TrEMBL record:
InterPro entries: Bact_solute-bd_prot1, SBP, TAT_signal. Pfam families: SBP_bac_1 (PF01547). PANTHER family: ARABINOSE-BINDING PROTEIN-RELATED, POLYGALACTURONAN_RHAMNOGALACTURONAN-BINDING PROTEIN YTCQ. The lineage of its organism: Bacteria, Bacillati, Actinomycetota, Actinomycetes, Micrococcales. This is Extracellular solute-binding protein.
Length: 444
């Protein structure tokens, strides 16, 4: 993971006008709160607000509240980030308000930075806590020596599968993606799909490409360099083009949709490659207790990695907070203490813990649902150490993902994933330039 400077983040020539060109959001303004004096701790009781899309999160905050009468936290539920939550946050920032803390995805931190929406928590002592966090995640919130969010959860990837379904074709686990494709062909003879490929959501594809070694955008001193047509990405696209053409994967629905749950319950879906948070969703499959297991993610070989990440969020302190020091204190407790992590898992189904020293009490136990397997320790702990650390998020994230997803939808009408990736790269270059960001294509 590359630590970005603010100059690299913004790109040469990004002025005040460009700061406001955030698609679909209001402009909080161009004066950074981080250029002002730090706000001292309050002398009396403090009430913090935290906007998040996590369910039952007030129950987590109440544990903190009972122990910290001087810093009380009120949780306000908002829709998931791009389902309306970010729009609410941008609008609140533009009006000079908003919560003290908000749930912001790791990949969305740079977009909030572009509108000066976040507090640099290094000014309030965040670096003192860096050793408590997974280094890859900490790097994803670190820019120009500043810290713009506290890692809250992530999604190291693995293979969730049904052993009895695989036994119909010999029971072998796919260790490589080539194995996966071969087993997928065998399963189709049994009217079973090995997995889905969501042509309406490019996020999993990005994770697969990152696992293969891709780095789509990287910062340099004179702006951003894009390369979505490297061999790692194009080989990944070619692989899934073949998988779709050979009818190995189902593109009619995505994982964890109602149709997926119905198919999984009938043994018509053998497996899914997804983030660690998928375990809680798989437990919703009817009659599935004891029928699923977890194995490492299939690998590409060569310069590829053992796993990848899908998802991940932060507890970020927003620019209009009057109590950033206290907000940081709560965020660190939430994401590193045993009480906080256990409460998040129990009440909110949080993703993978950002604290490598504590994955959660329940996640240290054998899982009855997954046949007594200790899959969190056996599979996901190693997966967190097998990531593409060179991958970094860029200052305009959602629009490029929308562009790529729109291209992938054309697969149903004959356009290859490879062609969509190549076309998306050119469109993304235009998006960056329209927002005043300096970008160039990497030389061949």
């Amino acid at each position: 993971m590359t630590l970005l400077t603010r100059r690299q983040l913004l790109g040469t020539g990004l002025g005040a006008a460009a700061m406001g060109l955030m698609a679909g959001c209001a402009t909080p303004g161009t004066q950074s709160v981080n250029s002002a004096a730090t706000i001292p701790p309050a002398n009396g009781p403090v009430k913090l607000t935290y906007w998040a899309w996590l369910k039952d999160f007030q129950k987590v905050a109440d544990i903190w509240n009972a122990q910290n009468p001087g810093i009380q936290v009120e949780v306000v539920w908002i829709p998931g980030g791009n389902s309306g939550g970010y729009q609410k946050l941008y609008s609140a920032l533009a009006a000079g308000g908003g919560p003290d803390l908000a749930q912001v995805e790791l990949r969305s931190i740079p977009e909030f930075l572009l509108v000066n929406g976040l507090v640099d928590l290094s000014r309030y002592g965040a670096q003192e806590h860096a050793h408590l966090y997974d280094k890859t995640l900490w790097n994803q919130v670190s820019y120009a020596g500043g810290v713009y969010g506290i890692p809250q959860d992530s999604g190291p990837m693995a293979l969730f599968y049904q052993p009895a379904v695989l036994e119909a074709v010999g029971g072998a686990l796919p260790r490589s993606w080539d194995d996966w494709a071969w087993i997928g062909k065998e399963l189709r003879a049994k009217d079973v799909y090995i997995d889905c490929f969501p042509i309406s959501d490019a996020s999993p594809f990005a994770s697969y490409a990152a696992q293969a070694g891709a780095v789509w955008l990287r910062p340099e001193t004179d702006g951003w360099v894009i390369n979505m047509t490297d061999e790692a990405t194009l080989n990944t696209a070619r692989f899934f083009d073949r998988a779709i053409d050979d009818d190995i994967v189902n593109t009619a629905y995505g994982a964890f949709s109602p149709a997926w749950f119905a198919a999984a319950a009938k043994g018509k879906i053998a497996s899914t490659v997804t983030g660690s948070w998928g375990d809680a969703l798989i437990e919703g499959v009817s009659g599935a207790s004891g029928k699923w297991r977890v194995a490492p993610m299939p690998t590409w070989g060569g310069d590829g990695y053992g796993s990848s990440y899908l998802g991940g969020s932060t507890a970020a302190v927003l620019a209009n907070s009057k109590h950033p020091k206290e907000a940081l204190e709560f965020a660190v407790w939430l994401t590193t203490s045993k009480e906080g992590i256990d409460a998040e898992i129990k009440n909110s189904g949080i993703g993978w813990s950002p604290n490598p020293e504590f994955i959660g009490t329940d996640r240290q136990k054998p899982s009855a649902f997954f046949g007594g397997q200790r899959y969190n320790e056996e599979v996901f702990v190693p997966a967190t150490r097998q990531q593409n650390t060179e991958w970094s998020w860029w200052p305009v994230t959602q629009q490029p993902f929308n562009i790529l997803s729109d291209g992938f939808r054309k697969k149903a009408f004959g356009t290859s994933l490879v062609d969509s990736v190549v076309a998306a790269e050119q469109q993304i270059i235009t998006v960056f330039k329209n927002k005043g960001l300096t970008i160039r294509k990497e030389a061949a």
